[in-house]
Amino acid sequence: MRDFDENNITAAVIDRFQNTPDPRLKRIMTSLVRHLHDFVRDVDLTEAEWAQAIAFLTRTGHTCTDKRQEFILLSDTLGVSMLVDAINHRFSKNATETTVLGPFYVENPPEAALGANIGVGVKGEPLYLDGSILSEDGQPLANAEIDVWHSDTEGFYDVQLPDLSEPSLRARFHSDAQGRFRFWTILPRYYPIPYDGPVGDMLTATARHPYRPAHVHFMISADGHEKLVTHLFVSGDQYLDSDAVFAVKNSLIRDFERQAPGVAPDGKKMDTPWRKLHNDFVLAKAVAKKSVPAA
Amino acid sequence: MRDFDENNITAAVIDRFQNTPDPRLKRIMTSLVRHLHDFVRDVDLTEAEWAQAIAFLTRTGHTCTDKRQEFILLSDTLGVSMLVDAINHRFSKNATETTVLGPFYVENPPEAALGANIGVGVKGEPLYLDGSILSEDGQPLANAEIDVWHSDTEGFYDVQLPDLSEPSLRARFHSDAQGRFRFWTILPRYYPIPYDGPVGDMLTATARHPYRPAHVHFMISADGHEKLVTHLFVSGDQYLDSDAVFAVKNSLIRDFERQAPGVAPDGKKMDTPWRKLHNDFVLAKAVAKKSVPAA
C-alpha cells in the first residue's frame, strides 16, 4: 500500500494492526489511531504545531524521574486520570468514593505502628486521624493495608524536598483486629502541582492555576475487596471548586475539627490547638478485571 | 465544580480552557481533550492499561536523546507524521510530493561543495546523484539549500554509529546559478527503524515489521517557496508496499540505474559498477501559514 492521503491513511494504519495477537491490544490501538487521526484532522494541525507537540512530549518524558511523574501530571490536568477513575469504579454507592492517585505516591512506604506520628519534626498544626476499614455490609476488615501520604504546610511532598533523606508524611499502616487505624500527622494545606515543567507551561499558556485543595491521600487494600485510592479533602478550602486535576467529590470533603489544647483520644496531652478527624472507609467487594494487553 | 462522572468530566475540562488567550491553542486543547476522552471511553480503559500507557510514554521520553527521537518514531509508526504531512501539503500537483522528515535529520549538516563525495570511506555501491531545483513554472532556483541524508548499506544512519565522530552520508549543498546540484554517495539499503526501544516493543506486540524501503532524504529550501521535505525511494525494494512509517508515494520511486565501469558524468573514472540517478525537484510557491500557539 502506497500513496496515502489525509483521508485513506487512517484505514491503512488500522489495517497494519490487523495481526495483533492480543485482541484487547488490537482494539486499543485501532481506537487510538482513529481518535488521534480525527484530532489531527479536526484542528488541521500544522507542521510547526506537530513539532511543538513532539518537543512537549519529549520534555515531559525528560522531566520524569524516580521522584517525579510528569506524564501522570499531564493526565491529571487533562482530566484523563479522573475519567479513567470514573470508568473503573462503577461500584455500589455504599463504598467510599475514589479519586486520583496523583504523581506523589511512592511504592512500599515505610511501615508504621498504629498511633505513630508520621510528621515528627514537621512544622504544622497536629492532626489526629482515626477510623475503621469496613466492607460494604459494615464488617470490619482486619489487617487492611493503609498507605497514607500528604503534603506539608508549604504544600510540598517529601519527594519534592531535596534536603530530606527519609520519607515524611508518608507511611503504611495495617488495621487492627477490629479494622481500626489511628495516627498523628499535621494538617495539610492547598498547594500547586509542580509547575516548573512542561505541564506548568501548559497551565500558564492556557491561563489555568495549578492549585489543589488540601487533602490527605489514602490507598487501602484488603483481601477480597477493590483497592481504594482516594483523598479526604479539608472543608472550606478555597480550591475545592477549581481543583487543577478535577478530583474533588463532595462525599470526600471532611471537617477536620479544630480542638482546643487538652487530652487527645489516645491520651496524649496537647499544649497547642490541634485537629481531629474520625473517618471510616468502606471498600467495595472485588470485581473481575479485564485482561491487560502484553505490551 | 465537583463530583464529575465519566460523562460530564469532558465538558468540565474543556471549560477550564475557556480563558486561554491564544484562540488557536484554545481550539487545539479543546479538540485534544474531546478526542482523548472519547478514546478512553471508547475502549473502557482499565487502570492497569492507563498505568501501562504512562509507563510507555515515560520510556519513550527517556529514549529520546540528542541523537534519537522516539516520539517522532511513534508519530511515524502511528501514521500521524504522514497525516500531518498530507494536511500541510495540499499543493499543486506540479510540485514534487512530500513525505516524512523521519527521526534522523540533524540540523545544520556540514556544508559540502557540489560534486563532493559524502560517503568517503563508506562501503557500498557508488551512486552519482544530480539534477536541478525548479519552481513550478520550470525556472531554475539558484542557491537553494539542499540537505541530504541517508543510511549506509547496513541500514544505519551516522548518528546511530557510536564509533563515528564525523557526520557521514549527510551534507548540505547549495544549487548553482542554473539551479543544479550533483554529488557522490553510496546506494542506501532498506533498514529497520530503531526497534530496541518502546516503539519497537509496540511493533513486536502488534506483529508489525520495522522495515523501511531504501531511500535518500532531501530537505530543500529556496526563497519564496515551500520547504520541500521528501525522499527518493529505490525501485524494486521489497518494503515499498509495507513501509513501517507509511511514507511511500509512487511519484517518489526512482530507478537508480545500474552502470557498468566506465566514465561518470563528472569525468570520474569508475573501475567497478555504480549507480546513477538524475532527478529534478519542483518546489511549490510559498503559501501563507497559520500562526503557531505560544506554548
Quick gist of this model?
The structure is a homodimer of 295-residue chains. By secondary structure, chain A is of the alpha+beta class.
Give a written overview of the molecule:
The structure is a homodimer of 295-residue chains. Chain A is an alpha+beta fold. The first copy, chain A, has two domains: 9-65, no CATH class; 80-283, Aromatic compound dioxygenase (Protocatechuate 3,4-Dioxygenase, subunit A). The first copy, chain A, is 24% helix and 21% strand. Chain A is built from six helices and 14 strands. Chain A has helices spanning 9-16, 23-43, 47-63, 70-77, 80-87, 198-205; strands at residues 126-135, 145-150, 170-174, 180-186, 191-192, 211-212, 215-221, 228-234, 253-254, 257-259, 262-263, 269-270, 274-278, 281-283. In chain A, strands 1, 4, 10, 13 and 14 form a five-stranded mixed β-sheet that branches. Chain A starts with 8 loop residues before the first helix and ends in a 12-residue tail after the last strand. The model of chain A has no long low-confidence stretch (mean pLDDT 94).
CATH topology (fold) name of the largest domain in chain A: Protocatechuate 3,4-Dioxygenase, subunit A
- Unreliable stretches of chain A (pLDDT < 50, length at least 5) are none
Instruction: Please name the fourth-level CATH homologous superfamily of the largest domain in chain A.
Output: Aromatic compound dioxygenase
CATH architectural category of the largest domain in chain A: Sandwich
Feature tags:
2 domains; homodimer; 5-stranded mixed sheet; Protocatechuate 3,4-Dioxygenase, subunit A; 295 residues; 24% helix
